[in-house]
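User: New here, please read:
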Amino acid sequence: MKEDKKSFFLSFGKAQVSAFIGGMSDFAIYTLCLQWLGLPAHISNIISGSLGAVVNFTINRYWAFDSATTPVGQQLWKFVIVVSGSIGLKSLGIYLLIDFLELNPFYAKIIVEILVSLGFNFVLQKYWVFKK
């Protein structure tokens, strides 16, 4: 069954709200790890991305994609694969932007987050992880 445009944009909007909330959690933890714990940016991103993913999964499952009737295990293993790829892409992007282009770690994080979230996460979550 083909999805209509209104339904697509509604789920896209909800997914962006979910990503924003998860991203704010991620960014707060990233800042804590980077500034208070003194961890390198790419390591801080792995930690913060993992914890932000828990927030994002929960919101996506129950609200953004309204997919709570599917057993959580069927979604969770797929989500872990997507998040692992996402964290890998983001960590590599942050590393490259900071170490080679000498960008500020916070700007690097924001740029990479936007690119990976829209081009990788949304597509895989909508059409694979939380597919109805």
